[in-house]
Design brief:
By secondary structure, this protein is of the alpha/beta class. It is 35% helix and 21% strand. It is built from 5 helices and 8 strands, in the order βαββααβββαβαβ. A 6-stranded parallel β-sheet has the order 2-1-3-6-7-8, sandwiched between helices. The chain has a two-stranded antiparallel sheet with strand order 4-5.
């Protein structure tokens, strides 16, 4: 396959690293996206959401600024998109954000966490067209208990050459209890 960098210390990051290794990727791990740097030849970057926002600014930076910094570095380092046998352009690299589905549901996580993930998702959706066709950007919302379900999704994302700007949600949506919903 190729070389991948997986950032994060959550079970979702571990599941992603194991799934990619099983698919033939050479996987390198980094604890935090905010301090990670790409190595030569890495064409896949998986940034997993920090476990919580108690780590302070570093954890929130992993969601807000680190994806943009690492994606820009990857886009600059990779060769331009190539044409396949049918004349379609194929991206040279891909960035996949692994988000916490509870932080995508208002009221199910801290306001800072919801805001940081919304910012990361907004950045991804805005940047996917500006970085295409050389780099594809996608996101997966995956709870820690759904890590086993991530393997086929990662396999599909790494081979679906025309998919960019998508957020795929695994499992059921978290729905916090409210007074108006019983």
């Amino acid at each position: 396959m190729g070389q991948a960098l997986v950032t994060g210390t959550t079970s979702a990051a571990e599941a992603a690293a194991l799934a990619l290794s099983a698919q033939g990727w050479q996987v390198r791990r980094a604890a935090q996206a905010s301090t990670a740097a790409l190595s030569e030849g890495e064409s896949l970057l998986v940034i997993a959401t920090p476990a919580d926002d108690t780590d302070g600014a570093g954890a929130l930076d992993d969601l807000t600024q680190a994806p943009a910094r690492l994606a820009s570095a990857m886009a600059e380092a990779l060769p331009p998109a190539s044409l396949d046998s049918s004349g379609e352009q194929r991206a040279s690299g891909q960035v996949i954000l692994i988000l916490d589905p509870s932080a995508l549901t208002p009221g199910a996580a801290s306001p800072a966490r919801v805001a940081a993930q919304a910012a990361a998702l907004g950045w991804m959706r805005g940047a996917c067209l500006s970085l295409a066709p050389g780099l594809r950007l996608n996101a997966i919302a995956c709870a820690p208990s759904q890590g086993a379900q991530m393997a086929p999704v990662l396999d599909w994302l790494t081979t679906a050459h025309a998919v960019t700007g998508q957020m795929l949600r695994l499992g059921d949506e978290a729905r916090p209890p409210t007074e108006w919903r019983r």
